[in-house]
Amino acid sequence: MSESEAVELLLVEDNPADLELALRALRQAKISNRIYIARDGVEALEFLFCEGPHASRRIWDGPKLVLLDLKLPRVDGLTVLQRMKEDPRTKTIPVVVMTSSQEQSDLIQSYALGVNSYIVKPVNFERFAEAVRQLGFYWLLLNQPPVRS
Amino acid sequence: MNSAATPATGDHGTAAGERLAAVGTAERLEASLREIRDLKAALDQHAIVAITDPQGRITAVNDRFCAISQYAREELIGQDHRIINSGHHPKAFIRDLWTTIGRGQVWRGEIKNRAKDGSFYWVDTTIVPFLGENGKPRQYIAIRADITERKRAEAAAAHLAAIVESSDDAIVGKDLNGIVTSWNQGAEKLFGYPAAEMIGQPVARLIPADRLAEETMILQRIAQGESVRDFETVRVRRDGRLIDVSVTVSAIKDPAGRIIGASKVARSITERKQAEATIQELNAGLERRVAERTAQLEAANRELEAFSYSVSHDLRAPLRAMDGFSQAVLEDFGTQLPDEGRRYLETIRSSAQRMGELIDDLLAFARLSRQDLNRREVDTGLLVRRVLAELGNPWPGRLVQLRLGPLPACVADPALLKQVWVNLLSNALKYTRRREEAEIEIGWARSGGPDVFYVRDNGAGFDPRYAGKLFGVFQRMHRLEDYEGTGVGLAIVQRIVHRHGGRVWAEAQVDRGATFYFTLGPEAVP
């Protein structure tokens, strides 16, 4: 995938198996093929704020949706979420937390930071695929984002 | 002492003429006799008189003797004094009396006698021996005065003095200038000064320099007729040691009611003060330990949270991979696999999913301990009907007969209580599913203690020998093929009930149904 094509979806996931399954589910749902993958919180922030290897990217070019795991190496998902929602340039990007955690504290903090959806990844792949299909359909196709200037 | 007999000898020699002398002597004798009779009459009015012969036999008594001894004169004449002996005096005392008067000497003393009715009286006694020509006593005259009242008062005073003396409290008398007038043993013990060193000295010696004003205040209040009660202060002992004392001071009045001094009762409260200090120390120690223990518990709780957090995150990820990639193999290569291979992959998937359920239930169970209880009044009947509606009939086509009467309200955390009913009622539905006609009864009972709620079914029941394992985590009474489940439901019920201070128990027979009972409050203390 090249950066000349605007990235529609940022997938932040460190677990390779989960990553592969998520991509499989997205592919099956025919959501998007313009996906950028970040393997930890630092990569995600560099991509979002056009830093380091992404210095040439324009911050206005998306993504349209972030799928964010919470437990990540280096910088964790809640910090990524906080940085995005603090910055006027990124705070309107919908963020869906996709995590294994059913802990109340994660849920409460995520919503306090302004998360748009919170999905607990089910063990059952069919249910996982269904969840990915629905949220991709909603946030990428149905949702009407504000025009960013 | 036989001079007492002088008037009886009548030796009044004069130098008058014989006749005249005879007339004069007769007149003088007459006058003397009159005088003696008068004296005797006066004496009888005042004193108790008895005359005895040399052997001690009573030869004469006056009316007062009869009155005080309660004996008639006839009962006394001819008897000796043993008739009124009280037994109070030692033998040596009596012997000394007889030796004295036997030698012709006057005896004086106080004697305790016994009257006819057995009561005792005290007499101040003078016994005068009168000697015959042979120089031996010819008779004794005993003159006595009743001193019973005085003796009684003395005994009472001695009793009071003994009480004061034996008291552990310091009891000190002082005059209005603060000079010590009496000092008991308790005072010696408390302040360390013997009485000889304190009587006549200012009581201010006991007062630390910075508290001297207290004594002025106390004396002023006493002079105004007030008293000082349980005044807690500090005094200084002879050895210089300071002691905590509680002091009560009240006025001493003379018979006319004038305040002439004060009595001070002082009690050491050093031990009490030390006990108070010890209690304070113990309390402080206890609070410290509670704080430490609380910190430990909080740390343990944080560790538990961290633990369940990582269980929640990390243990489920590999299960998703097992399930997801098995599914991927089935989807992508299913046609190339024999039936057996596809069945194996399905088994991997269902096992992974079951482990996911086990982890979820275990985490839910662990979360119960950390969750705060939010108690309020709950309409139990409404809650149960709502739970039943949510559960529906998971196995349609069979008949479920529900017996549900009115239920009393209770006080509980509504969300947790709902979980209890969900688990018990879904169990009842699950374990009756092989019955053509399932019967489920929901009821309650009241018996002195907290209300007992129960759910009774006619389902599979269980062997009561294993009832002890019923509420353990992952404990199951039935094979998974027969009844699905993780074995956490009843453990959750028990945890919730216990957090409410209640009790849960069950009765059952294999294949004859089960009844689960629970309460939501502590048992009444009998």
How would you describe what is shown here?
The complex is a heterodimer of chains A (149) and B (526). Chain A is 39% helix and 14% strand. Chain A is α/β, with parallel strands linked by helices and 149 residues long. Chain B has 526 residues and is α+β, with helices and mostly antiparallel strands. Helices cover 45% and strands 22% of the residues of chain B. Chain B contains 14 helices and 17 strands. Chain B has a 5-stranded antiparallel sheet, with helices on both faces. In chain B, strands 7-6-10-9-8 form a 5-stranded antiparallel sheet, sandwiched between helices. Chain B has a 5-stranded mixed sheet with strand order 12-14-15-17-16.
Summarize the structure.
The complex is a heterodimer of chains A (149) and B (526). With 149 residues, chain A is of the alpha/beta class.
Descriptive labels:
heterodimer, A: 149 residues, alpha/beta, Rossmann fold, five-stranded parallel beta sheet, globular, B: 526 residues, alpha+beta, 17 strands
Q: C-alpha Rg of chain B, in Å? A: 53 Å
Mean pLDDT of chain B: 86
SS strand fraction of chain B: 15-25%
Distance between the termini of chain A: 26 Å
The count of DSSP E runs of length 2 or more, i.e. the number of strands of chain A, is 5
Report the helical percentage of chain A. 25-40%
CATH architecture of chain A: 3-Layer(aba) Sandwich
- Helix count of chain A equals 5
Distance between the termini of chain B: 88 Å
User: Can you tell me the overall shape of chain A?
Assistant: globular
* Whole-number mean pLDDT of chain A: 83
Low-pLDDT runs of 5+ residues of chain B are 1-13
* Largest beta-sheet details of chain B: 5 strands, antiparallel
**What count of structural domains of chain A?**
1
Instruction: State the helicity of chain B in percent bands.
Output: 40-55%
